[in-house]
Design brief:
alpha/beta; six-stranded mixed beta sheet; 8 helices; ATP-binding; Energy-coupling factor ABC transporter ATP-binding protein; 225 residues; binds adenosine-5'-triphosphate; Rossmann fold; ECF_ABC_transporter_ATP-bd
C-alpha cells in the first residue's frame, strides 16, 4: 500500500478532531490503537474518503481521496464497526453480488467471484442465509466477504473483533492473519495487532506514537494508566 497524509486534518462542527498529520504508510499490516474518542475511526475514514480532509491532502496508491473518491474506495475497502449496517440485502449471496452488479459485470463473472470468496473463507453454507439471522462471528466474516469480492488491494477494518465471543474472535483473527490483502485494523484487542508490521497510537486527535507493536502497546498502556 502507499497511503500518504500531507498536513491532513479533520474537523467536526468547528472542532479539530484530527490535528494536521503528515505520514506515509507502506507496510502490509498496520494496527491502530488508542483510547475511545482519540481519532482512530476518523483517521481510517479519511483513508477511504468517507471523511474529507478539512485541510491538507490524503492519497491512496496515488489517488487523491477528495478528488478520486470512487477510485480510492475501489482501492481501499472499509469494514465498519457494526457489520449489520454493512450488509444491505437480506441474503448474503445477493449482497455480495451487489457491488459487482453496479460495475456492470456479466452474471457469470459475478457468480464466479462470489463463489470464489465464499469458498476462500469456507462460508459457502452462509450464502443463502438471511444476514439478520447470522451470529456475530458469521456476520463479521460475511461483511469481510462482501467487501473482498470487490477486490480492494487494501482492507480497512474498524474493530473487527468487537462484541465477539472467544471462539468467533479466534476465527476472525485467524481469517485476518490469512489474508493476502494489505490490512489496516483499528482494534482494542491488542493480541490481534501484536504481530503486525507497524502500529499507530492516537491520543486526543494526534498521532502519539508510531512503531513496532511491543513498543507502541507499552506506550498505550502508559497513556491508559
Ligand atoms: N460525525 C461526527 N460528528 C461530530 N463529531 C464526531 C463525528 N465523528 C467523530 N466525532 C468526534 O470525533 C472524535 C474522534 O472520534 P473517533 O470516532 O475518530 O474516535 P475513535 O478513536 O475511533 O473512538 P472509539 O474507540 O470510541 O471508536 C470524538 O470526539 C467524536 O465524538
Amino acid at each position: 500500500m502507499d497511503i500518504r497524509f500531507e498536513e491532513a486534518e479533520a474537523h467536526f462542527e468547528g472542532r479539530t478532531v484530527l490535528h494536521p498529520l503528515t505520514l506515509s504508510l507502506t507496510e502490509r499490516r498496520i494496527g491502530i490503537i488508542g483510547l475511545n474518542g482519540s481519532g482512530k475511526t476518523t483517521f481510517a475514514r479519511m483513508i477511504n474518503g468517507l471523511v474529507a480532509p478539512y485541510a491538507g491532502r490524503v492519497t491512496v496508491n496515488g489517488f487523491d481521496t477528495a478528488r478520486d473518491g470512487d477510485r480510492v474506495r475501489a482501492e481501499a475497502g472499509f469494514i465498519f464497526q457494526n457489520p449489520q449496517n454493512q450488509i444491505i440485502l437480506p441474503i448474503l449471496r445477493e449482497d455480495m453480488a451487489l457491488g459487482l452488479k453496479s460495475r456492470r459485470l456479466p452474471t457469470r463473472e459475478i457468480d464466479a467471484a462470489v463463489n470464489g470468496v465464499l469458498s476462500r473463507f469456507g462460508i459457502g453454507h452462509l450464502a443463502e442465509r438471511r444476514a439478520h439471522e447470522l451470529s456475530g462471528g458469521e456476520l463479521q466474516l460475511a461483511a469481510l466477504a462482501s467487501v473482498l469480492v470487490t477486490r480492494p488491494n487494501i482492507l480497512i477494518m474498524d474493530e473487527p473483533t468487537n462484541q465477539l465471543d472467544l471462539r468467533n474472535r479466534d476465527l476472525v483473527e485467524r481469517t485476518i492473519r490469512g489474508l493476502d490483502e494489505d490490512v489496516i485494523v483499528i482494534s482494542h484487542d491488542l493480541s490481534l495487532i501484536a504481530d503486525f508490521d507497524r502500529v499507530l497510537l492516537f491520543h486526543e486527535g494526534r498521532l502519539a506514537a508510531d512503531g513496532v507493536p511491543w513498543d507502541i502497546i507499552a506506550r498505550y498502556r502508559e497513556i491508559a494508566a
